[in-house]
Amino acid sequence: MRIERVDLDTWADALPADGFEVFHTPAALEVVADHWNGETELLVGYNGDQPVAMCPVFVQRRSVGTAVLSPPPSMGIPRLGPLLRPVSPKQRKQEQLNQEFTEGVLETLDLDRGRTLFRVLCPPTYTDPRPFDWQGFDVRTAFTYELDASDTTSDDLQASFSKSLRREIRDAEALDLDVTVEQGVDAVRSVYDDTVARYADQDETFSLDWAYVADLTTALAAEDRCRTYAARTPDGEFVSGITALYSNDAAYFWLGGARTTYENVSINSLLHWRIVEDIATEPPLGTVSRYDLMGANTERLCRYKSKFGADLVPYYVVESGGKRMELAKKAYQLIAR
Fold first, then answer.
1. What's the predicted TM-score (pTM) here?
2. Strand partners, 311
3. What's the pLDDT at 336?
4. Class of 146-313 per CATH?
């Protein structure tokens, strides 16, 4: 296998039709690279002239050492990491591709294991992290919630929800509120400000910079990969909203959904429901079939997210191990936000 560092145009040509995350798209990667304080490397593995694997990495060099990350921290990117495009259905061939690409990427990056912090949050489509384990990295399993909204009706979808969630949706639908998809950066700003205020109420700092959020959502909206669902009163007052991002396969709950009540009724379940309903009845991009609710690794959030009857889907976190690297992780502030 031949590993090459490529530009965004070549990356776009190599990207498969499905199986990738929204942040694997060239539009997202370009914005992230512009706002990332470091180097961006797009690595593609070739079998002859055919791209068979790819992985974006973000490099930051400091006096204490180097960090090689996919995704970079504190940029609201839940997962990134390697994508495999096996040309053979045989298990042996797929495992060989995975191992060769993993070894090739590590060799290309020329990691100084003693001074380089390596951390990758893999997409759920990357199901075999063993080559990283064999190379001496720590591998652990994390989870997300994915709701499949394909080949079903709105009624059947709601029937899979918990009784309390269905009641919340009905109560919110009875309110004098309009929930619509709003275009433009102003709608995203309303959701952003609401989220910042929610964090401030909890004495926490929201890590995403507005300039980055504005650039990212504008770039993705141009490809119909970003939609903002906003709930407003009849006189136009903003009550709450959610900004969702879209790959070719899935919608992602990305920003907003601050716990909000209106006339003593929680309306965020209605916002989630409208996103799911649109996936079921009028799929964005014509191909989106799942809703990634996030939050499955936080016990407090699981109690709510599990009400949607979504599947618990595993993905893998790969990172440098050892006591020295534990100190490096703190230095680089790589605790997931």
1. 0.93
2. 146
3. 38
4. alpha beta
